[in-house]
């Protein structure tokens, strides 16, 4: 039973799949006492997940943020402890994108002033003259999930969309109907600049005095990303001096923005209380995706929205590799028990159809499987590479030679005393995992449950001897697979049994005439 603490209000309908899953026990409490009882902790922005609290949560494996930012979570400490931090960055993209267009229209059509005029008994006058979106140039500072959704909608309004994002290629931008440009060109060309960057050391204060001075005179600024990205004092000055015509902000340096110079600008600015993602649909979508992330992680070992994962762990890749990532971990866990010792080299070979990035993702799964044999539950995909480096284990990926249908992944392991072993596997149609080769011996084994591997000489009576010994100890063999290279040479048996067997029985199998090595594997 996985125990989950939810310490902030999260949409109940969206959480329903998690709450109804019998493998999870849910506690909803604003107080964060007794943290050592929980394996997962779900929050929004209210709860502060500090180093001290993480230190008290001895069993914690996952921290989930129902939203995009993780400013309220000590991600560095979580990573050090091997705790996965996940968020749901794409679930509210549509809500925020629509909000951006709403702010844009609100500013350009002076809707706030128009509303106040009617409610005050007045009517339209020259001060309410607005501007159209049609034909204007929209500059997107950042072309992530929200930026892409804004681009789609702005194009429908007849706007020309420019974007600057160092992590997006010109081709990818062009496929969205967006022109990729340099930073200064974006500033000088945009009639409306919309900010969509995360808060980092390099983006804090990015839109300040210098940036604003490079913007087109009379441009409009929209910010729905992070308040600290915009220097509010510099923005207020640029508006007062006429460099910037107006601005619409949903986020602020301090929230609520008491004392901000923007509050004194009246109708020159449109201010909203951080409600970009505050729609019923978005909150439900966020909760549902977060619930699915928790279930995927604890039930299938899959990770979605991992903040502190290696950079190649992209959602699209994880979706595509799904079963193969599970296979890589199972092969690693098998090999780590098959060849115990001080490992110094791990090599993963993949079929030609897998990209270099795919191979790196699969390598992390294999590392987790291997190292868990020595380190237990403390190792996961968050810190597996860290532990490998700490132990001076060389890791690398290569392409499988040829085009065999027998295997998708091959994994080899070497110890400091020059012992080595290898294993291969594939994913069949329907997602069934198979071990297809152990060393150079062809087998067909489902990698699950309690297994015994018996390496032996291929000679008559070996299977009968093994069956008789185990039967005499009342050990039931659920499945037996054998492989050999050629008649009378090396062979292997892989037995699936109902339960693990005692060490004494394992040693008895190893003493049998013709048996060269025995290993017990738990998957």
List keywords for this structure.
16 helices, 523 residues, 34% helix, alpha/beta, 6-stranded mixed sheet
Task: Walk me through what this model shows.
By secondary structure, this protein is of the alpha/beta class. Helices cover 34% and strands 24% of the residues. It has helices at residues 12-19, 51-56, 75-80, 93-108, 111-119, 145-156, 170-175, 183-189, 209-214, 232-240, 280-300, 315-338, 356-375, 384-390, 462-472, 503-510; strands spanning 2-6, 24-28, 40-43, 62-65, 84-87, 137-141, 160-164, 179-180, 192-195, 219-223, 244-249, 269-271, 343-350, 394-399, 409-415, 420-427, 433-438, 441-445, 450-457, 477-484, 490-497, 515-522. It has a 7-stranded parallel beta sheet with strand order 8-7-6-9-10-11-12, sandwiched between helices. Strand 3 (40-43), helix 2 (51-56) and strand 4 (62-65) form a beta-alpha-beta unit. Helix 1 (12-19) packs parallel to helix 11 and helix 4 crosses helix 6 (145-156). The two termini are 19 Å apart.
Share of β-strand residues:
15-25%
The overall pLDDT, averaged over residues, is 92
Count of discrete alpha- or pi-helical segments spanning 4 or more residues:
16
User: What assembly state would you assign to the polypeptide chains in this entry?
Assistant: single chain
Strand order of the largest sheet: 8-7-6-9-10-11-12
Portion of residues within helices: 25-40%
Distance between the termini: 19 Å
**Ranges with pLDDT <50 over ≥5 residues?**
none
Largest sheet: 7 strands, parallel
Global morphology: elongated
Q: How many β-strand runs?
A: 22
Instruction: Using the CA coordinates, give the radius of gyration.
Output: 29 Å
Structural class: alpha/beta
